[in-house]
Design a protein that fits this description.
Blueprint (H helix, E strand, L loop, with lengths): L4 E6 L3 H10 L5 E7 L3 H11 L3 E3 L2 H6 L5 E4 L6 H10 L3 E5 L6 H14 L3 E4 L6 H12 L5 E9 L19 H17 L2 E10 L5 E10 L4 E7 L8 E5 L2 E5 L8 E6 L4 E5 L7 H14 L9 H18 L8
Parallel strand pairs: 1-2, 1-4, 2-3, 4-5, 5-6, 7-10
Antiparallel strand pairs: 7-11, 8-9, 9-10, 11-12, 12-13, 13-14
Helix pairs in contact: 1-8, 4-5, 5-9
Length: about 325
């Protein structure tokens, strides 16, 4: 294909807007189209973000002739349906996290992408940020010794409005899918396969998890300790520890602009890890690179990675008793 990648955005909510803004900083990326459930919403979004074409249905976007790849930025329970629609229209797909609501849905989406030979990737932006690449480099260098554990938390004080998406069971609300996916995904990216997971949670009056904590034992002999909350403004840091020292991804680790290395001899240094645009730019660049090179998945966020993560989320939800309508 040409060096230009023509993007379509499915959805007009806050995260779709953030991705559209990030996409403007990705070389060779063109905001070609947006699709919404109403033409008025799509046209308003297109005018505000200088998008070439607006479609009044998701199907019309999936069928659009001048779109190479569709970014899906709708609420969690719609991800599988929307991804299947886009793939059915012959489009590559970048689907916002969590990939789907459960492992069964994820399997259906992956199976269709593989059957049709189309690129598909979960939009876990942190896997493509400069900070994570630097953490991996330092871990591999042996500077902090043998890696033994990782701690990560992600928490903020969300609205208490029972009608807001984060508090509604039918919209995939709760801390785990919105926030817990970040430490979960990065723990697996840094420490590898998981042999077992143990979880506990505290619930809201609306039936979703307010706070969830889980530990994972990884195949390499390491442990990760993770927590997430939409009722606590936590430090939201990630620390990888080894026998000689540690690496800290500073507050809001999922978009860390610097990391700190602290060694057993008392020395420390801070390394700047600035990112492009608003952070979403990096995953867009990598998805575009895959399309240009004819890759069907990205080696840093493979389809098997997403299937494994969805299975782990299912396991955690089973342990804490969190069940969504999609599970039926």
């Amino acid at each position: 294909m040409s060096d230009t990648v023509r993007w379509g955005i499915l959805g007009t909510g806050g995260i779709a807007r953030a991705f559209a803004l990030g996409l403007k900083h990705a070389p060779g990326a063109v905001l070609a189209a947006v699709g919404s459930r109403t033409l008025d919403s799509a046209q308003t979004f297109a005018r505000e973000l200088d998008i070439e074409q607006a479609y009044g249905s998701y199907q019309a976007l999936a069928d659009a002739p001048d779109v190479d790849i569709i970014y899906i930025g709708t609420p969690h329970p719609m991800h599988a349906e929307n991804a299947l629609l886009a793939l059915g229209g012959g489009k590559a797909v970048l689907c916002e996290k969590p990939f789907t609501m459960n492992r069964v849905e994820a399997g259906e989406v992956v199976a269709l992408a593989r059957a049709k030979g189309l690129f598909l990737m979960e939009a876990m932006w942190t896997r493509f940020m400069p900070a994570l690449a630097e953490v991996k480099r330092i871990m591999a260098s042996g500077e902090i010794g043998t890696i033994t554990q990782m701690h990560a938390d992600f928490g903020y004080s969300a609205t208490l409005d029972p009608e807001h998406r984060v508090n509604k069971l039918e919209l995939g609300g709760g801390a785990l899918l919105d926030l817990g996916i970040y430490p979960l995904s990065i723990a697996c990216a840094l420490l590898g396969n998981v042999d077992s997971v143990r979880a506990q949670a505290v619930f809201t009056d609306t039936g979703v998890d307010a706070t969830t904590a889980f530990t994972m034992k990884h195949s390499g002999g390491t442990l990760s300790v993770c927590s997430c909350s939409m009722r606590a403004r936590s430090a939201s840091e990630l620390i990888v520890s080894g026998t000689r020292g540690s690496i800290r991804m500073r507050r809001m680790f999922h978009l860390a602009e610097r990391i700190t290395v602290e060694l057993m001899d008392g020395s420390s240094r801070t390394i700047p890890t600035p990112w492009l645009g608003n952070g979403y730019t990096h995953e867009a660049i990598e998805a575009g690179r895959c399309l240009r090179e004819g890759l069907l998945e990205h080696p840093w966020m493979t389809l098997d990675d997403s299937l494994t993560l969805m299975a782990l989320l299912d396991d955690i939800r089973s342990q804490i008793g969190l069940r969504y309508p999609s599970d039926a």
